[in-house]
Amino acid sequence: MRRPYVAGNWKMHGTVREAAELAGGLAAQIGQIDNIDVALCPPYTALSTVSEAIRGSRLRLGAQDLHWEKSGAFTGEVSAGMLVDAGCHCVIIGHSERRQFFGETEESVNRKLKSAVAAGLEAIVCVGETLVEREGGSTLGVVERQLAGGLEGAGCDLLTIAYEPVWAIGTGKVASPEQAQEVHGFIRAWLGRRYGAAAGGIRILYGGSVKPDNIVSLSAQPDIDGALVGGASLKVDSFSDIVRGSLKRI
Ligand code: 13P
């Protein structure tokens, strides 16, 4: 049985003080909830503060990206070891915004995944198609290409997949539970061919306009194991409701 998993991707939002308030509020509301894994992924500047704010709770700290090298002359970058040092438990890799705006490729996703896992970080690898790709009928092909390239030569320990259709991110256009399940089922089958029985334990999160009012029907789908939440993770009440809503099916 897969434990539900909800991660909040705060993206480039908030001051250190706001992060402390949000994390403190979440620790108070959902910090002791059992039967689910919950991660908060603030900007780098707030990692230490959020780590402090969630100490003693069951909430986990995550980062939004990393560099694959351990250290060196890579101005602006942060390594897996640095994230572990800052208290991180997990890291998002290959988010569509990184692919779209910062030149992330399957190859860089793959390097980042291997580096994260080698450092003991749980990796949330994001895949998903654009609207043009969906309308052109290539959704599953795109997802397959991203999986094949991103996971090449990597094991499935510490691996979580997030399916985030680009057209649903920040648009209010959530994928229907059936649309999401179709791709999640495809991902599960692909992972099964790749990793055998172990694929049954890999969590696949849905991301894209997840809100308190759609999480229950999404998480009722057999291959949706939780959510990667953007906008609605920035408010204590909405994120707490999403976390509680994703528990419904167990
Ligand atoms: P929204 O929930 O704001 O659509 O963002 C989803 C996302 O990109 C999470 O990584």
Give a description of the structure.
It is a single chain. This protein has ten helices and eight strands. The chain has 250 residues and is an alpha/beta fold. It has a single domain (5-226, 241-249), classed as TIM Barrel (Alpha-Beta Barrel), CATH 3.20.20. An eight-stranded parallel barrel has the order 1-2-3-4-5-6-7-8, surrounded by five helices. Helix 1 (16-30) runs parallel beside helix 10. The chain starts with a strand and ends in a 5-residue tail after the last helix. The model has no long low-confidence stretch (mean pLDDT 97).
Briefly, what is this?
The chain is of the alpha/beta class and 250 residues long. The chain is 39% helix and 15% strand. It has one domain: Aldolase class I (TIM Barrel), CATH 3.20.20.
* Proportion of strand residues: 15-25%
In DSSP terms (H or I, runs of 4 or more residues), the helix count works out at 10
Q: Under the CATH scheme, which class?
A: Alpha Beta
- State the end-to-end distance: 10 Å
| CATH topology-level name | TIM Barrel
Average pLDDT confidence is 97
Q: What ligand species are in this complex?
A: 1,3-dihydroxyacetonephosphate
Helix-strand sequence: EHEHEHEHHEHHEHEHEH
Question: What is the H level of CATH, i.e. the homologous superfamily?
Answer: Aldolase class I
Query: What structural class is derived from the secondary structure elements?
Result: alpha/beta
The Cα radius of gyration reads: 17 Å
Spatial arrangement of strands, main beta sheet? 1-2-3-4-5-6-7-8
Ranges where pLDDT stays below 50 over 5 or more residues in a row are: none
Helical content class: 25-40%
CATH architect. name: Alpha-Beta Barrel
The tally of strands reads: 8
Largest sheet: 8 strands, parallel, barrel
Apparent shape: globular
Write down the domain tally. Answer: 1
